[in-house]
Structures are given as C-alpha cells and as structure tokens.
Amino acid sequence: MSERLLHDLLRDSADRNPDGPAVVDGERSVTYAELEARSNRLAHLLRESGVRRGDRVGLYLDKSLESVLGIYGILKLGATYVPLDPAAPPARLAGIAANADLRCLVTGPEKAEHWGQLVSEGAPVETLVAPAAGEGELETPAGVRLLAGPALDGQPEEPLGDVLRSDSDLAYILYTSGSTGVPKGVMLSHLNALAFVDWAADEFAVRSEDRLSSHAPLHFDLSVFDLFAAVKAGAPVVLVPGQLSLFPVEQARWIRDSAITVWYSVPSILTLLVLRGKLAEVGLPELRTILFAGEVFPTKYLHALMQLLPHVRFANLFGPTETNVNTWYEVPRWEGEPPLSIPIGKPVRDVEIFAVGEDGSILEPGETGEMYVRGPTVMQGYWGDAERTAATLFTGWGPGSSPFPTYRTGDLAYVDGQGDWIFLGRRDSQIKSRGYRIELGDIEAALHQHPAVVECAVVPIPDELVTNRIKAFVVTRGEVGEDELVSFVCERVPRYMAPELFAFRETLPRSSTGKVDRRALADESVEMTSVD
User: Fold this and answer.
1) Are strands 21-25 and 237-239 parallel, antiparallel or unpaired?
2) Which of 178, 271, 447, 504 could cross-link with 456 by S-S, CB 3.0 to 4.6 Å?
3) Tens digit of each residue's pLDDT (9 = 90 or more) over 393-412
4) Hey, which CATH number is domain 352-425, 3.30.420.10, 3.30.420.40, 2.30.38.10, 3.30.1140.32?
5) SS in 3 state form for 224-258?
6) pTM, two decimal places
7) For domain 6-190, which CATH number applies: 3.40.50.720, 3.40.50.980, 3.30.365.10, 3.30.1490.20?
8) 3-state SS, residue 128
C-alpha cells in the first residue's frame, strides 16, 4: 500500500508554505493552509453524507475556487472525482451520472436550475453539496437533500485519520466522446496522475515562485498539470476567467497582469493570441514557459508566437486521455521558414512506446505503425465497459517484463532518425478515396501553409462511387477562391488528396475542451448531402 497520493501534495505544501497563495479565482484567493483546512472539512461532510472510499462523486459547477476545494475534499475521503462539463446538456450529463452511479454532486448555485432536469433524466443523485450556497436559499428536487456552505462550518479542520490508502485507487474519471456518440469514462489512478505530474514538474522546473494558469476545463485532462504541478511546487494556480479566450487582447493583458509564468492550453487559443492578441504591444515579461497539447499547432502560427516571445520556452505535449501525456518535444527556434509540422518527440519518464504493425509485430525505427504505450501513466480502463477495456488495454504485453499495462492508442506514427516520434494521424482519420489511403491531417497541414488560411478542418463524406469525398471547412483572412486553395494544396500533396468541396466560415465549431468539433462538421456535411 502506497502512502503517496495526489492530496498529499496539498498537505505537504500547506506544511511548507502555509501562507502562500494556493488558488486565485478573480478577486478571491485562498492560502495553502486555508485550502487544506477547508478541504478537510469537506471530506468530513462528504463522509457524514454517506460517501465512502471508492465512491464516485460528481463535480457539477463552473471552474472556481469551490471546484478545486471539491476535488481535494473528494480525494481525501478516498473517493473518485468525476468532473461534469458544466456547459453540456443535462440529458447528456444524466447519462454520465447514471453510468458512474453519482449519488452525490459537489455543485454550485449557478447550476441549481438544472438540478431538477438531471434527476428527471435519470441521474441517481441523492445529495447535493454546494459550498458557495447559503442555507435555505435554493430549491432542490424531491427526495434530494442539499448541504449548503454553513454545513461545512461545524466540521473538523483536521484530516480524516482512518481512510485506507493505495496509489492504485481511482483518483478521477474523465468522460470523453466515444466513437458511438456515447461518452466513455477513462479511469485514472493516483499513480497514473502522479507519474505524469512528477515528471512535468521536474522537467519544467515548476517552483513556488511560479504562477500557473488554469485554462482547461476540469473534465479535460490538460487540467491535471495545472492543478497538481502547482500544488506539488507550492505555487498558486490562477483560474482563467470563463470566456476570456474569446477576447484575445483581454486574455493577453490578463496573462501579463496576473504575472503568469507557465501557460498550458490547446494551440487554437495561442493562435488567437498571435492573430489578435497584440502581443508586441502588450508584452508578457513574466511568462517563461508555454506548453500546448490536444491538437496540431500550425507551424506558421507557432513560429510567429516564438518570434513575439523570444524569452519563452515552448514544448509540445502529446497523448490521449487514456495515457495523459506520453511524449513531449521541446520546440527549437527555426532559422527561416518553419517546417510543415513538428514531432511529438520522445517518451516521458518511465514510459515506453512501440510502433506495431497490422500483424502485431513491433516495428523498427522509420516504419509506420500504431502506437502502443506502456508505463505508469496508462489508465486502469473504461468505467463499466469491460469489452472496450479488453480491446485496448493489455497486461503482460511487449518485450521484457513490466508491471504496467499497455494501451493501444489508435495513433499512427514512426520514429525518425533523431529518435523523435512523428505523428501521422489517427487510424480512424485515415480514409480511402478512389483507392488511395489518405491522412486528413496531411491535407490540413498543407492548407494551413496558405498565408490567408486562419483555421481549417477536413472531413470525409461517404460516397458510393469513390468511397469518400473530401470536404474542407476553412476560415480565412480576406477572400480566397477555391481554385487558389486547390492549386496551393496540390503543390504540397498529391492531387487525389485535394479537397473537392469547400465551406468558408467565420469560425469553426468547438467542443467544450476548445478543440475543433470535427464530428459536428462531419454530421453537418452528411446531412447536407442527404438533403441534396
């Protein structure tokens, strides 16, 4: 049984740096001593309400000081936190709550209007804990009790002393979109999270003097670094105000005025800063490290950002939710034009990666295959889905002996001559058209090189004659004709890979995690084809 768990990081920092700021949420902040004491109170209250070790507790509130409090209170009880997308339809969240058997939710007054619908749609909620709510000010669904902020006041500030502990216990379950449209719950243990957090905190030298931004929503795995690398170092995590990314100049000023030193987000947020953030005027003197993950960063914008911020270190982190991060690449400063794309880099500490052929054999460097990942960051499986787990997670697989499972990622990649992994795309984004195998990411990379293209996404449209037709959704600066884009793409990829259809948009739809919502674009294209 291990004695090192995620919430131990909070206790240690509270001992070392009790008066240091732990969480900054707008005008509000709490010290490490205060966060430790309040989360202990919440753990006692949750136990009093019936939550036990191994239970799943939902987080249903906007990202805030209270949501961070909720995470630590849940973990200290030996329970598992399940962050719900606060912007998702209640019907979808009710399905997740039913799947994870969420009988208790840590929530906020801002979500009170949706509590009734959650329950009516099938969420098995029995208890709502709302630290920011006053006593008697909110109505609850029939049969559901509400424990408001005053209920915390009488609880002890000392930690629970009799909770059994193991680093194999689940720390959190993150629900991601499944290929069938039904969310899948990725189970991650304390060990899984700490293997990544320890490496990241060391590699990027996170110290108590830093100020880490927290941009990603809590149901997105990027939030794991923000929260736990900060607390490991005893540094403050500064919550990025909601909707700020829609206003790039204001976001740049917020980074400057908040004295952020370490930033982590999806690339599209950084692209907006390049295009509209007036970085040359605003200046970000305190910023020292930018980490990005979750989607491809067009190199023309990455290069521009690096020129605007010559004092900043840049790193590309790569990995699915099931492994958190499995590779990383420190981006060099280029002389002249940037390359078409950048590597995803080398494995993080204690992680092994293999390229595997269709026959199950491990391939040599330079040979393209599916990425298999083995190591302590690899998930425990999918909650309530043994069949899906068995199809992607293997024990005792691979060369040599290892105590860790192996995850079949579905990513296609190879190792180049420098030992860096090169990501080519997803198995499920590799399509066939007119007999050719095509990576949609190659087409997007070519389109992104056009100086007028701000953003693009390429989707396949099923077709009886050619298997798939290729459609590009494009956001541009100024007017650009389809013929010009086709000619431009054909100078960079074979003619058969050029899009046949174009749709010009002012913006592209995004998921709650900030990524381009390709599923919505594909569904829209299929519907339009059916109507035609």
Assistant:
1) parallel
2) 447
3) 999 998 998 999 999 999 99
4) 2.30.38.10
5) HHHHHHHHHHCCCEEECCCCHHHCHHHHHHHHHHC
6) 0.86
7) 3.40.50.980
8) strand
